[in-house]
């Protein structure tokens, strides 16, 4: 686990605990602060080892964080209560309810996958219990932050923020059109494919496409889909389509696909100074 990631978790835990203590008044004796961690378990489902987040990956980092925090807050007794969401979109939120009714939670951590997180965050708002997640990239979590998800804290950026970035660039340099090329999600036989393999490029490009289609200064915004197994001839066809209507091209695809697209763009003389390419890299690690 990256040290920066561990440090960030430490900070979040410290802030959550501080807020809890201030709300309850400073205690004179040790009392428990209970964290509910709801993620898929690799032990029960070995196929989940390919997932970026699981109980087996996250719990060691959380335990390390709590060890550090105990040095500064000896009056607190931190308790981790972990539950397996089984990577099923309705199991995680149900575990939220069960753990709350059993009095096992002061702070929710997880789920991290979109459909589970959306439901669980609504429950945590209803229960008035803070909720932390390392995901929540989708635009809805930003737009409904003060309505549906006001107890949810996400520690990463939101896809909707990218719209503001490109809006500022287009305004500053007076760009007038945009072409979007994005890669569709790869289908898989993984048990929780519908939960995990959300089409990330579609999620990030749709707010961008919608925003610039509605802007008065943008003449035209077009998009093209590509597949992970697309050939160089497919890339050539897509680039020639965008050549007719765009000078600013935004890419969202795997690193290998972006490399092939740029090689083909060079072959088609797109590096003649008349075109600008932006690459949104979601997949490199």
UniProtKB/TrEMBL annotation:
Pfam name, any one: ANF_receptor
Bilayer topology annotation: Single-pass type I membrane protein
UniProt xrefs under InterPro entries: ANF_lig-bd_rcpt (IPR001828), ANP_Clearance_Receptor (IPR052612), ANPR/GUC (IPR001170), Peripla_BP_I (IPR028082)
Compartments, as annotated in UniProt: Membrane
Swiss-Prot/TrEMBL GO biological process terms: signal transduction
Keywords: Glycoprotein, Membrane, Receptor, Signal, Transmembrane, Transmembrane helix
Receptor ligand binding region domain span: 58-281
Gene Ontology molecular-function annotations: peptide hormone binding; signaling receptor activity
Signal sequence, renumbered to the chain: 1-23
Main location: membrane
PANTHER family per the UniProt record, alphabetical: ATRIAL NATRIURETIC PEPTIDE RECEPTOR 3 ISOFORM X1, NATRIURETIC PEPTIDE RECEPTOR 3-RELATED
Protein name: Receptor ligand binding region domain-containing protein
Organism (species): Biomphalaria glabrata
Lineage, top ranks: Eukaryota, Metazoa, Spiralia, Lophotrochozoa, Mollusca
């Amino acid at each position: 686990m990256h040290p920066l990631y561990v440090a960030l978790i430490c900070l979040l835990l410290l802030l959550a605990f501080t807020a809890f203590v201030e709300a309850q008044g400073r205690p004179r004796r040790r009392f428990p602060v209970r964290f509910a961690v709801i993620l898929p378990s690799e032990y029960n489902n070995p196929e989940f080892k390919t997932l970026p987040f699981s109980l087996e990956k996250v719990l060691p980092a959380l335990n390390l964080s709590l060890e550090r925090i105990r040095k500064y807050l000896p009056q607190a007794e931190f308790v981790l209560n972990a539950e397996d969401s089984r990577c099923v979109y309705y199991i995680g939120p149900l575990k939220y309810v069960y753990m709350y009714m059993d009095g096992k939670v002061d702070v929710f951590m997880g789920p991290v996958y979109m459909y589970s997180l959306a439901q669980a965050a609504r429950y945590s708002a209803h229960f008035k219990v803070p909720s932390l997640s390392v995901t929540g990239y989708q635009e809805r979590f930003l737009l409904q932050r003060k309505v549906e998800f006001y107890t949810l804290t996400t520690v990463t950026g939101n896809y909707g923020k990218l719209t503001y970035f490109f809006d500022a660039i287009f305004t500053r340099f007076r760009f007038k059109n945009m072409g979007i090329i994005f890669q569709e999600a790869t289908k898989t036989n993984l048990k929780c494919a519908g939960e995990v393999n959300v089409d990330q490029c579609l999620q990030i490009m749709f707010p961008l496409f919608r925003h610039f289609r509605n802007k008065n200064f943008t003449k035209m915004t077009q998009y093209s889909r590509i597949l992970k197994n697309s050939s160089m001839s497919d890339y050539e066809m897509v680039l020639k389509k965008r050549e007719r209507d765009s000078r600013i091209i935004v890419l969202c695809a795997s690193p290998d696909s972006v490399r092939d697209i740029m090689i083909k763009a060079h072959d088609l003389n797109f590096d003649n100074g008349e075109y600008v390419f932006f690459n949104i890299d979601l997949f490199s690690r």
